[in-house]
Fold this protein.
Amino acid sequence: MTALGGLGTAVLLAPLLAPLLAGGAAAMVGWRRAVAWSAVAASVVILASGVLAAVATTDGSVLVVGDLLRADALTAVMLIVIGGVAVIATWSGVGYIDQELAAGHTDARGAGRYGLLVPMFLAAMVLAVLASNLGVLWASIEATTIVTAFLVGHRGGRKAVEATWKYVIICSVGIALAYLGTVLVYYSSQHSGMGSQGSLDWTVLVAHADRLDPGVMRVAFALLVLGFGTKAGLVPMHSWLPDAHSQAPAPVSALMSGVLLSVAVYALLRYRVIAVAALDPGFVRILLLTAALTSLALAASMLIAQRDYKRLLAYSSIEHMGLVVLGAAVGTPLAVAALLLHILGHGLAKSVLFCGSGQILALEGTTQISGVRGLLARRPVLAGTFALGLAALLGLPPFSLFVSELALARAAADAGLGWALAVALVLLLVVFVAIASHGAGMLFGRPPAVTAPPGAGPATAPVPTAAAVSSILTRTLVRPQALAPVRTAAGVAPLVTGLAVLAVLGVVAWPLDQLLRAAALIAGTP
Amino acid sequence: MSDGVFVQILDLVCGGLLLSGVLMLWRRELVAIVRLLVVQGVLLAALAVLLGVREQSVELYLVAVGVLILKAVVLPGVLHRVLRDSGDAREAAPLVNVTSSLLAAALLTLVAYAVSGPLVALAPSATTRALPVGLAVVLLGFFVLVTRRHALSQVVGFLLLDNGIAATAFLATSGVPLVVELGGSLDLLLLVLVLQVLAARMRLTFGRTDMDELQELRD
Amino acid sequence: MTAAGVVGVLVQLAVVVGGAPLLVGLMRQVRAVLEGRAGAGIGQPWRDLRKLLKKEAIRPEGTSWVFTSGPLVLFASTLVIAAVAPFVSTASPLDGVADLFAMVSLLLLGTVALTLAGLDTGTAFGGMGSSREVTIAALAEPTILLAGFALSARVGSSNLADIVAGTLAAPAQVLSPATLLAAVAFAVVVIAEAGRLPVDNPATHLELTMIHEAMILEYAGRDLAVVELASAMRLTVLLGLSVNLFVPWGVATSSAPLALLGATAVFALKVGLLGAVLATFEVFIAKWRLFRVPELLAGSFLFGLLAVSASFFLA
């Protein structure tokens, strides 16, 4: 236990309180510029607490507050992921909501609700990773479903209602199954000789894991994989994910894809440690491998003929969660370190891409891939960041996903899972081709006839007639485009920051190296 | 309370839970189904009281009161309101007809017995021997959820599933730690309220609350 | 076989055969009173039988011995059940034969005889009624077996007297889930087998709905009297079985004359009460469409299955 004392308490409480305060402010005064920035500030607080917690726990020590909150190196990694993705998402959310208000897609009430719910969402996820009690972990993941329900349905209309309904029903059922699994874990802990009371405290459970009843734990772990797997978007209960991600506002999609899925995987990682000790490790591995490979296969097959770029990103999330769970199935410290880095890299890349896709949607007014052509010629900055984001997502160097995928592959090969690795690599190849071809179509391609001249609009300003014609065309024919460009620079800033961090993480191992190693010792099993 | 009487009442309550679950599959009138949910809430509270008497635990009495208020009064109340607003009285066309549903329910019960084998084996006692009942209710809830097309029926299926889990928790562990119980109940309440709002929105945008309308998002 | 035992069996036979038409009359009377009619009185079925017995039995042209023997087989099989089942006393000398599964087979034997007779007439109504009756019987038999299985699992014997005695010895058993579920399943099956609402309407001759009446449409005179009496006995036997399996109090455990007398009175009272309740229930419901009948029977099958599993796993 650490001797940080007061500072430790502050590090654990600050990331919880900061979003709650930001949410409270939004609830009181409604949507304001300052409120939007307070959400960004709260995200920064989460990130800073994550870094502080990382500094404190890299040596293997643990921060605790009472017996409810607890942070070790694994928690610190997750806090950094949440903080990092949240900074990008809330930062671009500032401009996003302004745009929505200006375009009339939402009203003051909707914006106020957004301002309240996004920080609540962050608080619920922070509580999930800080909870030392697995029951509280479960309850806070369930709470994320509730707070995000109205965020998914933010835009209103038939599709949003449909997506929200599916999201809430499927996720609640999944998470209810996880509750059943939690209850069974508690049941077996009551009969494991740790006193008649039993416990759901993670440390206590890990200490007594070898005495938990294998028969009960087998049922429990299967339920937990199914339940938290629902929330992580794993097959077979994945069908909410593409709908919810494609309908939610871009920053919320970024948060859901980048962090919410990972928090569910984090829960699985915690339980895996217990399950491996209590059960035959082969069973755990086969279960996770099945979930991982089927998810990968599904994502690959759905990506090939995808027509909607937000759904494309959503299926890519399923694919990456499949990879991460593959790492969990391998389970060696190297694999765990790699999967944590992958979670971080995927979170950042996905938030960049979803926020970027939000701006593309505002510009083009469609989510159809075929409706977006020649973006690079017309919006070089935005399209450039989007292209780099796709490159990062596909695991090209110098971005960190390249490193983490390589490490995952090595870990799988070391663990004698060559066949699974081979299957995964073939599927990844399919994914690569699918995303690359769709992305190339959007970025290059032949620009639609009408909008071709305005693409070069600002540059050709000296020619008066052409400029006049093009601006009239733009204003009359492509209304959203007339509203959007004002804030392009401000809108792209968070995305560029995210990409820069991704590239740095891919090139230099230093800032995270120690932390990942410490976290891998906690969640990995040799 | 003597052992014999305890086991007798326990079996009776569990039998009632299972029976009300099966009847929910049988009935088509949504009002009747919601009424069955009330019955189930009362039975769950009775189960908590019974275990409280057995273990002389004040905490379980409090949980019982909470369960009674939440599952027998508040949640059915919310559903009644949705029902009154929507005006649909019946589950129009379940995907699986009632006869097959009932036979499937028979099958699911047997599955529940098979799955709960290791659970009972860990600590055989009167309470754990009733565990299959809890799991069977969970499976029935799942079945309702998958095969019913009305929005309210899906919520009912979810609540049935949740009741099954609550029953399993009571039977296996005499309830989970209080903080988890509180968190779970709060989540459940909020969730049902969210679903109520969603059902209202669905009616506003689609004109009816049938899942057949939800066909737009697909690949 | 002691003389007292023989007396017990004879008393039981007399009660069932003599009481069955009265039970039917009682149920009709209850229904009539509840519907605001005067009713024909409890004794009317006996008067009908007397009238029918005086008439000539006309048999349709082209029918074979199957048609002739149908009523007799039905009557005989029901009579056997009436003799051996523990309605009045568990100490009957015929106890060894009173096996639950044998009773079910005997019930089915009567059903089969009547359906074959219905087919033998070669008329549309007979065939239709037989087909419906067989459908219902095929759905009902598994349930009755399951419910019986649940009850016999408890005492470890499928002997009816043992089951009744077991319940008498441990009255609290009646409130166990297994017994309650079995009771519900049994009740549904009894309604289906006896051809009562909502499965069949015994008072109708509407071609779309009738089941039992369609099968026996061609019988007349003495034959019809036998069929009517056998059907009434069947109802009595089914109701008697259900009261004694689930509420056995009052059954005599010896063959002492006084005990037999008391048990007879209690039995008549219980069956009469159940019949009255059933008739009251029938006032408030309509006959279901034939397509919904499988639903009802699937439900009772489920209850039977739950009863079996509950009796094995809970206790």
Chain B has nine helices and no strands.
